[in-house]
Amino acid sequence: MIHIMLAIMKYQYGIKMENKEVGDLLVTEAMTHYHYTLNFWKEMLSSRTVADVQALTMTCVFVRWLASPDNAWSVTNTVFSVLMDRRYNYRPSKPYDHSSSKEEILEQELQKRLFYAVLSLMVKLNGRLGRPMSIKREDYDVELPRLLNDDLEEAESGYEPHQCNYYMTIPIAQEAEILLDMYSTIFALHPTIAYEEGITKLERKIEMFSRGLPNLVSPEALAKGRVNSMIEAHALWLDYANHDFQIKLHHPALCRSRKPEVINRNLEICVKSSRKVLELLIKIWENESTDATWAVITDAAAAIFTLLYALWERRDQTTLDDWSELKTIIDGALPVVAGIATMFGTQTIFNDQKL
Question: Confidence class of residue 146 from pLDDT cuts 50, 70 and 90?
């Protein structure tokens, strides 16, 4: 756990360093820590201790930053199978209560956090790569983690960010469950629900998800500039997740309806959310809170090409002002995409380029 944590920290510092020489050195050190942990891979997979599952989960987090998504997919699905084998997908046979010891409470909550962390990574990787889900919503009943005070002196609730830094990850787990429903129902190989009915149900879920966000990081607070600067990055990423979901749900390439009104509505929603995704990526970049991963780069590409597609589809009604507006949006986003790609280690033709 210590070595993989050092790998995560050094890698993140390294790729964001302006001094390339120092940054490359930190990345090299990070990879050395990571390769050292792989010596224990076999033992960790066969172990049944919570600590080893923690180390495996942290490895899933680290491999997200590697250039090939197949590596992250392979590692994450392997670790998820370990969680299933350890029955982390089920509620504890003896859930804790007010009479339980602090150690029992913390262990059960930690197991919940591990399950939902790997579930979130697995769902997003499998979905983006067009691969089937490793689990359905009906296959697990473990509750979402609770907000516990990170001090750990007492197993008590801690609802403020300074008390429970994990509060941000609970909405991410909720969003992953909605994505799981989407990939397992309307976009499954054999859909289990009619397309338009499924769209309506999922829209309600994402609306409830957005409304249920803590006031500290709600879209309304973000829009009105009421988000504390210390947690602004969290609010930006949660708003980003909402609009990214809308693009995936309504994307023209996945539309299974032939009704013109449904097709047009999907396109309108995608255009609005694509603009918002690019706008949020720029703000996140300015906030120095960028997540330099393959997934973020593909999200940006999807948003850009969706906007281009929408204008082309409506070329008979498109004006020069529309093209000028699109050019402004993409010219503002491309340097950010180029910066993320450079941090990610991808050679890009976008550097210093304009549309």
Answer: confident
Place 348 in a pLDDT band, splitting at 50, 70 and 90: very low
In a domain, 350, yes or no: no
Q: How many domains does the chain have?
A: 1
Global pTM?
A: 0.89
In Å, how far are 129, 285, 303, 333, 336 from 279, measured between CA atoms? 25, 10, 11, 8, 10
Average pLDDT of the chain, as a whole number: 87
Among residues 13, 47, 46, 43, the alpha carbon closest in space to that of 28 is found at 13
**Whole-angstrom distance, CA of residue 287 vs CA of residue 45:** 38
Q: Is residue 49 part of a domain?
A: no
Look at residue 160 in the predicted model and tell me its pLDDT: 57
pLDDT of residue 151: 61
Tell me whether residue 209 is in a domain.
Answer: no
When pLDDT is averaged across residues 295-309 and rounded to a whole number, the result is 92
Q: Is residue 156 part of a domain?
A: yes
Evaluate whether 214 touches 167 at the Cβ level (below 8 Å): yes
Domain hosting 72: range is: 68-184
